[in-house]
User: What shape does this take?
Amino acid sequence: MPKKKVKNKKPSKRYSKYKVSGSSLERKPSCPRCGPGTFLAQHKDRQTCGACGYTVFTDKKK
Assistant: This one.
């Protein structure tokens, strides 16, 4: 029986949501409706929650 090909797995991006500065931990913004652990997705002009649809629009500067 021939060997199976090993698929290349993409590494997890969960650690990109956190930063360690000194002895404190900084997180990206979380959803105020869903609570901590549900992060807001960063778009060009807004931040949205994938679970509940909460959206925060950013100001446009010209």
